[in-house]
Design brief:
Strand 9 (150-156) and strand 10 form a beta hairpin. The chain has 353 residues and is of the alpha/beta class. It folds into 2 domains: 5-137 and 331-352, Nucleotidyltransferase, domain 5, CATH 3.30.420.40; 147-327, Nucleotidyltransferase, domain 5 (2-Layer Sandwich), CATH 3.30.420.40. It has 11 helices and 13 strands. The termini are far apart. Bound molecules: zinc ion.
Length: 353
């Protein structure tokens, strides 16, 4: 029996701008599938278990079956799909088009994911993208970075994901690792914090949700006065602790607010280097750790503190001119962006043909 979850988008396929695209995003426990029109509007949206632990071949066959079901439920024939995009938490070697050392799924190493999706779905073109790149492209195409020349999206989760878009093109790099901003070195000292990637001093070790939780535990354990001493339970994982830091900061807890603003300070340090390297028009903050997001008290303080650090440390004027904001597309971003990047690729091929 199908385990597909359908989300009602209420966008009639008859009103969609043709051609249509399929966007896929493998993340968390699910494969998300969107039928996306030529203007980035979601015609329909589905989620199904991704079965990645069964190995790449079985998971890909399940993905193809789910795409077929999604098209059927939307009332779209396969022939109406110009191309599909597949976003994934890892990198593809651009020369070999094989997955390269995917951190969460080691047995997917060397799998030709795009070619296999073409084989199993029958869609004529499938474009692979890193999930953060896809999310960044979606924000650039139809989200908070729409209309800008260039933008960077930083996703603050257990790690820090990053996608960089310049003049409508994603930065992939020679080996698929372009935009790994979370692993920028911001502390070269021997005592620097350890990153999730097992190197020291990377931004992710200071500004991810796991980093915030670890710094919180250190201060609570030495006896700082805070509501967190009561709120944190021994069974809490790091993500839960980070969420509780936000909750008590919102209630006025000074230590929690200090920890959040220190997270912003480190992030600002990293973004200064991003500005001096890429000079983007826009930097967006997204992911699970947005502290209530735009308009929320703590969210606003978080953005203000990042901006303060950037303006203090960047070349004159750069920090003031930067559009710094929260991302706007949330959990849909990587699915829309995967389709959007496939659309870009498809239009390039159409010109060549
Ligand atoms: Zn790292």
């Amino acid at each position: 029996m199908s385990k597909m979850i359908e989300e009602k988008i209420h966008f009639p396929v008859q009103q969609a701008a043709k051609p249509l695209f399929v966007g896929m995003n493998l993340g968390g426990a699910y494969l998300k599938i969107g039928i996306i029109d030529n203007e980035g509007q979601i015609v329909s949206f589905f989620a199904t278990p991704h079965y990645a632990d069964r190995g790449p071949e079985e998971a890909t066959i399940c993905a193809a079956e789910a795409v077929e079901e999604a098209l059927e439920k939307t009332g779209v024939p396969l022939s109406d799909i110009a191309a599909a995009g597949y976003s994934f938490p890892g990198a593809l070697d651009p020369k070999t088009e094989l997955l390269h050392r995917p951190p969460n799924f080691p047995d997917w190493e060397g799998y030709p994911i795009a070619a296999k999706l073409i084989e199993h779905t029958g869609i004529r073109s499938v474009y692979f993208s890193n999930d953060a790149n896809a999310a960044a492209f979606a924000e650039f195409w139809i989200g908070a970075a729409q209309g800008t020349h260039s933008s960077c999206l930083l996703l603050l989760d257990k790690g820090i994901g990053c996608g960089i878009i310049v003049e409508g093109r994603e930065i992939i790099g020679a080996h698929g690792y372009g935009g790994e901003f979370g692993h920028m070195i911001i502390d070269p000292s021997p005592g620097a914090r350890w990153c999730n990637c097992l190197h020291q001093g990377h931004l992710e070790a200071y500004s991810s949700s796991t980093a915030l939780a670890r710094r919180t535990l250190e201060l609570v354990q030495v006896g700082h006065k805070t509501m967190l001493a009561e709120e944190i339970r021994p069974q809490d994982d790091l993500f839960t602790i980070a969420r509780k830091v936000y909750e008590v900061a919102d209630k006025g807890d000074e230590l929690a607010l200090h920890l959040i603003l220190d997270t912003a300070r480190f992030l600002g340090l990293g973004i200064v280097t991003l500005l001096h390297t890429i000079d983007p028009e826009c930097v967006l903050i997204g992911g699970e750790m947005m502290f209530g997001g735009k308009g929320a008290k703590i969210g606003n303080l978080f953005i203000d503190r990042i901006r303060e650090e950037i303006e203090h440390r960047s070349f004159s004027g750069l920090g003031r001119k930067l559009k710094l904001d929260f991302a706007s597309l949330g959990a849909y971003a990587s699915t829309i962006g995967a389709a959007g990047l496939a659309r870009e690729q498809d239009s390039i091929f159409s010109i060549v043909e």
